[in-house]
Amino acid sequence: MSTGVLFDEDLMRRYDREGPRYTSYPTAVQFHEALGPDAYTQAATSSPGALAGAPLSLYVHIPFCQSPCFYCGCNKIITRQMDQADAYLSRLTKEIALRGRHFDRARKVEQLHFGGGTPTFLPMDRLATVIGTIDRHFNLVRDDERDYSIEIDPRTVDPAGVRTLAQLGFNRLSLGVQDYDPLVQRAINRFQPAETVTRLLQAAREHGFGSLNFDLIYGLPRQTPETFAATLEKVIAQRPDRLAVYGYAHMPQMFKAQRKIVPAELPDAATRLALLKMAIDTLTGAGYVYIGMDHFALPDDTLARAYANGSMHRSFQGYTTHASRDLVSLGVSAIGQVGRLYIQNHKTMSLYSAALDQDRLPLHRGVVMSDEDLLRRDVIQQIMCRNSVDRESTGRRFGIDFDIHFAAELARLEALRADGLVECAGRRIELTPRGRLLMRNVAMLFDAYKNAGAGTPRLSRVI
Ligand code: SF4
Of 22, 48, 143, 322, whose Cβ has the fewest other Cβ atoms within 10 Å? Predict the structure, then answer.
């Protein structure tokens, strides 16, 4: 598979528009509250994964953070009060037990992810308790096939904590780095010297963690090409296995914390583009492979290998080496998928708590995928994970004539072909090195809801 990318400034400007990240299809915009009361039970007992006893994925949401990062658009609660967290954990414990009743205990948990918020807001003894509870109701394993990851705020964990995380069974870490420049860190209210991260990385490598991931952000206040170059230099010296480089989306009308960001300090559109180009050039020049939207990995990392052999997938946890599994979601606002059902928990703590206090699962909204959704989801996955769509095999697997079924989409694709984003050769639609940086634009063509005008201003921009 081609791993090259080509940064075409003119195309990037012209195609910069809002679009979904396609961690699911249909996207969360299509979720609704009109699901029947038994929808979850039905899905959990009759999904192909349940019938086959297939492995599970688990996601656990810990919504607390000690202080607000001003760029943040996550669903989180800023507090230093541990009693708030303890009240949450007692409900989470109940949810784990209620949720566990829907799944065969023999199904191995192959993938586990703790996200937030800041999962490491919790002291290690509390984290150990949560893991112990999950272990009682689900089949946690210790084999090398497991993919157990946790998001780390480097300000909340020390090397001893990293050792404890390894003892709890985690084998992958994701660190929020964002930017190393002190002035940028001050502007976003997130102070963390590179040395702190280096110490954690050393501890993680000593304790056998593989696939260490960094998140970086471009487009932050006070970022300049010079400061960002210095950040990238430090990052490359630290050599994480994977990197996600996101563009900052300034939406202060939606995210209160962002109102603390001074608009005049934000880089202009030309500088944003220059920062993105710098990140792509610097990381690929340092040996990282561009594996897909915003993501890079070292060639020997499992994700880069999965990308190379065409087995990479995309889910709510972003790019993954695991094929589509039933995803059991736990915690406030968490989103899961069971069979054809996407389902999200209540987004507010009060509704989440009220449901569990009445011994009910805190289910809020979701959507059941139709046959057409499954087909389009497959096409979008091919674009996001493999840079190409195999018209012939897709048609065969779904029992359609691809060119007839997608006649309107193929007609619209012609403009992207003329602009050099895709090539239509033989049975395949291939993204070009130019088009790979704009894969969301190609995917959007096959999004029936987007094409029907079901949009939202909440989506991030392509660049
Ligand atoms: S960026 Fe992460 S640590 Fe910062 S406020 Fe948001 S969720 Fe919390």
Answer: 143
Give the chain's domain count. 2
**Residue 60 and residue 182 share a domain:** yes
Cβ–Cβ < 8 Å for 247, 202: no
Distance CA 302, CA 317 (A): 15
Residue 333 lies in a domain: no
How many whole angstroms separate alpha carbon 106 and alpha carbon 55?
A: 9
Question: Which among 448, 454, 318 is positioned nearest to 379, based on CA atoms?
Answer: 448
Q: Cα–chain-centroid distance for residue 76?
A: 16
The C-alpha angle 80, 86, 92, rounded to 5 degrees, equals 125
Residues 126 and 210 in one domain: yes
Q: Could you read off the pLDDT of 107-161 as tens digits, one per residue? A: 999 999 999 999 999 999 999 999 999 999 999 999 998 999 999 999 999 999 9
Residue 344 placed within a domain: no
- Collapsed DSSP state (helix, strand, coil) of residue 449: helix
338 falls within a domain: no
Q: Which of 299, 328, 357 is the last residue of a domain?
A: 328
Do residues 20 and 35 both lie within one domain? no
**How far, in Å, from the CA of 8 to the mean position of ligand 1?**
32
**Residue 457 scores a pLDDT above 50:** no
Ligand 1 centre from 62 Cα, in Å? 11
2 and 61 co-located in one domain:
no
Q: Which of 64, 71, 72, 251 to mutate to test the pocket of ligand 1 (most atoms within 8 A of CB)?
A: 72
Enclosing domain of residue 129: 30-328
Are 21 and 45 in a shared domain? no
- At residue 461, the pLDDT reads 65
Say which range, 320-334, 368-382, 391-405, has the weakest mean pLDDT.
320-334
CB atoms near residue 426 (< 10 Å)? 9
Best of 118, 151, 216 to mutate for ligand 1, by most ligand atoms within 8 A of CB? Answer: 118
**Shared-domain flag, residues 2 and 51:** no
Q: For residue range 384-404, list pLDDT tens digits in order.
A: 999 999 999 999 999 999 999
The whole-model pTM stands at: 0.94
Let me know whether 187 and 232 are in one domain. Answer: yes
CATH number of the domain enclosing 212: 3.80.30.20
What is the average per-residue pLDDT within 420-438? 94
Domain boundary residue, one of 271, 294, 328: 328
In this structure, the residues whose C-beta lies within 6 A of any atom of ligand 1 are 65, 68-69, 72, 74, 76, 116-118, 153, 176
> Which atom of ligand 1 is least distant from the CA of 116?
7
Q: Where are the beta strands (DSSP E) in 285-391?
A: 289-292, 295-297, 313-315, 318-320, 326-330, 335-338, 341-345, 363-368, 388-390
What is the model's pLDDT at position 452? 76
